[in-house]
Amino acid sequence: MLGLVLASCACTLALALGACGESVLDVIVSDTPADATSGGDGTVDGDAAATTDAPADVDLGDAPGLSCPDASPVNQSCVHSTECCSGFCASSSTTLDTTCRPATGCLGVGADCTRAGACCSNGCFSSDAGSLGSAVCAGEAACFVAGASCTGDHDCCSQHCVTGVCTSAAPGCKPAGEACAGDMTCCGRVCVDHGDAVLTCALIGGCRPEGETCTTAPDCCSQRCEADPTGVLRCTALGACTSNDKKPCSRQVGDVCTDANQCCSRVCLTTSDGTKRCAASGGCRSECELCATSSDCCSGVCGPGADGLNRCQQASVCGKPGEICDKDPDCCNTGGMSKCLPDPTPGGPKRCHRPGTPACVAEGSSCALTSECCTGRCVPDHGGALACRSQCLPYGAACASRADCCGADVDCVHLAGSQVCAPLGN
Question: Based on the structure, what is the number of domains in the chain?
Answer without folding.
Answer: 1
